[in-house]
Amino acid sequence: MASNAGKNPNDLSRRQLFLGGAVAGVGAVAAVAADHALNAAPMAPGAAAPLNGTVTIPFHGAHQSGIDSPPTAHATFIALDLREGIGREELQAMMRLLSDDAARLAQGVNPLADTEPELSLVPARLTITFGFGPRLVDRAGTDRAPRSWLRPLPAFKVDRLEQAWSDGDLLLQVSSDDPLTVAHATRMLLKDARRFATVRWTQKGFRRAHGSEATGTTMRNLFGQIDGTTNPKLGTADLESVVWIDDKSWLAGGTSMVMRRIDMNVDKWDRLDRPGRELAVGRRLDNGAPLTGTREQDEPDFNHTTTVGFPTIPEFSHIRRARSDATHERIFRRSYNYDDAPSDPSMISNTGLVFISFQADIDTQFVPIQRRLDDLDLLNEWTTPVGSAVFAIPPGCEKGGYIGETLLA
Amino acid sequence: MASNAGKNPNDLSRRQLFLGGAVAGVGAVAAVAADHALNAAPMAPGAAAPLNGTVTIPFHGAHQSGIDSPPTAHATFIALDLREGIGREELQAMMRLLSDDAARLAQGVNPLADTEPELSLVPARLTITFGFGPRLVDRAGTDRAPRSWLRPLPAFKVDRLEQAWSDGDLLLQVSSDDPLTVAHATRMLLKDARRFATVRWTQKGFRRAHGSEATGTTMRNLFGQIDGTTNPKLGTADLESVVWIDDKSWLAGGTSMVMRRIDMNVDKWDRLDRPGRELAVGRRLDNGAPLTGTREQDEPDFNHTTTVGFPTIPEFSHIRRARSDATHERIFRRSYNYDDAPSDPSMISNTGLVFISFQADIDTQFVPIQRRLDDLDLLNEWTTPVGSAVFAIPPGCEKGGYIGETLLA
């Protein structure tokens, strides 16, 4: 558990947001850019709030960034396959390079090989998170054994997995409130990674833009559902115990990541009326309250029955099936919506969720929940997992170090 | 010319931004949502600035929205092909329906058939702009003749056009600072359009996020260039004369739109050094100043020569070739970046520009500029037009009317 974890749920967790950090100490390029901003686009007199573009989240620390901070508006997820012949030495070189790029970009500083340095000056809460797939850990060739959970998830009946959206050796999660920042950072990383690896898949996700809604509003997905109410809260000991691995292994201070690409059949969902939708989820659509409550954060009462004796929150509802009596069966979700161009001209939508969860142990925390949902969850009628991947998320590193050093050094 | 056009370049043009409009007068759904927001995510005490999510741009007016207002962070462009048998009567019905949807969505009000009404409550400067392709105007079957310019552009040597990115009967430009809003509005419109038309292509673009940079900062493209310095300024008579059609036809108060999908070969661009890049454009990369000046807005001096007698801004540079001595050869650009997943696993980027220009007359304003760039523009070495489309943009409408009524009624 990180020593400086806040206990206040309004605390932005251990990673403080540094305002204005992007402009301070960036060197010549930033100085010119700041000068330019002054010349070309003066802020209104009296304007006090710093631009969100200048807000930074530290890259260095006990844990990797991009997990226990408020989700950004945009995230791009890229899985890479290692090239033939890449062993431990090359993995070290790759992770040193990528960690250095990520640390600079997160501060709003251009990486050394940046050919468009001005595009690096707007971090907008940029974080870059690295995950290791099973084959990368094998290639490291150490005796620091991989975890039992570092393998493809067990097969679920609902799965219709496509290889084009599944697995991978190295995961990059590039997350920022600014889509141009995500595009530039992604390209910088891939330019430095391409000697070592090729792109296996790319998934782009979004949530509400910065400034669209009050801070802390729970996300709605493209079914219109409020999604994430029961998530552990940022900055709490609860989140720390759900997410971080607390042992003596190379993953101490790290976590695991499950990615599921979940197609949402919005055309079929359209044919379900509002009461039907609320029964499928177990929550009201308007404010996300459980069907037995009035407010989003109310605890659902699964024993409550209707006047004719049926459970008010049906047995087949999503929230009933997702809930366990076993207190360790909890995960921390940080999902993003996707809405891609349909490949079939008869379709008007290609929509879904890049489901992301972090948990200390996939086998004991994620899998039991997913098994219950696989057995019975009315939402399965409208959702189909089409991609699946599992990554070990190494701990963070200090300045001068690199992500993965506990495995590779 | 609109009667209430401001002459101050800092004026946000004739379309005032209405703060808080999304919450006022939205009816039951919004009331519940506002209540929800109050319960679930109270704003910090003393917070004064309205959320950008509540800012609206009026749909009704002399001109369509989404043209003479500051560009939003996101825009999705969809071209539709009319189904067989769609004539004037069906076009009327379609445009009535889509105009009503667009007017409601722009106010943060859910359209009548909205099955996820809560997703409509965050307009974030949403605008929806409609364009008519040549075939739609033919299908209208009136004697209000189409313009000479309402046809595919003349062929240019640089073109490598793909049908999958070109032409179309009806264009939807869905523009907002919030990507979830764009996704929901797009789906609402396509659900109502699908009886009449099928999707031909979808192009998604982005610029800097709201709040990333000071208002009025000129966009950088993914080559890192500042792009749009010489654009007519919002809220000026200059912009009005460049953009709006001023005659007695069905397009009075309307304009024309050129869309060019321009692939940018960023891998090849990487091999060009910084001085070479600046000569190709004719501007400094750091602050966008012409090579003969020090600040972005400085006028380029095309007669200035280096000590050895060569023009300081080369003849082959982009800004030299784009500039005409004919004062009417000007256009108003409102382009967006794109960065899609590469289709070829050996590539790491699929990047470019959804070039958009509005002008009263394509033949006399756009084509001469494009011809000069086609003949000689060093940037052509790194850029390739892969899509091209032309649309007539009908004037705006008042409440109770619909876009296209001057042609279809």
TrEMBL record, chains A, B:
<keyword id="KW-0408">Iron</keyword>
<dbReference type="InterPro" id="IPR006311">
    <property type="entry name" value="TAT_signal"/>
</dbReference>
<protein>
    <submittedName>
        <fullName>Peroxidase</fullName>
    </submittedName>
</protein>
<dbReference type="Pfam" id="PF04261">
    <property type="entry name" value="Dyp_perox_N"/>
</dbReference>
<dbReference type="GO" id="GO:0046872">
    <property type="term" value="F:metal ion binding"/>
</dbReference>
<keyword id="KW-0349">Heme</keyword>
<keyword id="KW-0732">Signal</keyword>
<keyword id="KW-0575">Peroxidase</keyword>
<keyword id="KW-0479">Metal-binding</keyword>
<dbReference type="InterPro" id="IPR006314">
    <property type="entry name" value="Dyp_peroxidase"/>
</dbReference>
<dbReference type="GO" id="GO:0020037">
    <property type="term" value="F:heme binding"/>
</dbReference>
<comment type="similarity">
    <text>Belongs to the DyP-type peroxidase family.</text>
</comment>
<dbReference type="InterPro" id="IPR048327">
    <property type="entry name" value="Dyp_perox_N"/>
</dbReference>
<dbReference type="GO" id="GO:0004601">
    <property type="term" value="F:peroxidase activity"/>
</dbReference>
<dbReference type="Pfam" id="PF20628">
    <property type="entry name" value="Dyp_perox_C"/>
</dbReference>
<feature type="domain" description="Dyp-type peroxidase N-terminal">
    <location>
        <begin position="64"/>
        <end position="207"/>
    </location>
</feature>
<keyword id="KW-0560">Oxidoreductase</keyword>
<dbReference type="GO" id="GO:0005829">
    <property type="term" value="C:cytosol"/>
</dbReference>
<dbReference type="InterPro" id="IPR011008">
    <property type="entry name" value="Dimeric_a/b-barrel"/>
</dbReference>
<dbReference type="InterPro" id="IPR048328">
    <property type="entry name" value="Dyp_perox_C"/>
</dbReference>
<feature type="domain" description="Dyp-type peroxidase C-terminal">
    <location>
        <begin position="219"/>
        <end position="397"/>
    </location>
</feature>
